[in-house]
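Lab manual, section 2.4: Encoding a predicted structure.

Procedure: take the sequence of the chain (66 residues), apply the prediction step described in section 2.3, and record the output as structure tokens. A sample record is shown.
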Amino acid sequence: MAEETVVRFDDGEELLQDSFFYLCGRVLTKRPVNVSSLSATIFVVWRLKERVLIREEEEGILVFQF
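Recorded output:
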């Protein structure tokens, strides 16, 4: 059975109108996540041209902005 989570964006309308791509997800760990380290690691592993911005919208739910 799949778990369903609804994420509410505080400024949802603005997010949908800009020219970025978004990905919502979570890291499967019980330990706290260092968001800046995660961003730097994703930048290197995925060979991105620009940094990925990551913010925590709700506890455990991360929003990745490319």
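Check your result against the sample. The first strand starts at residue 22 and ends at 25.
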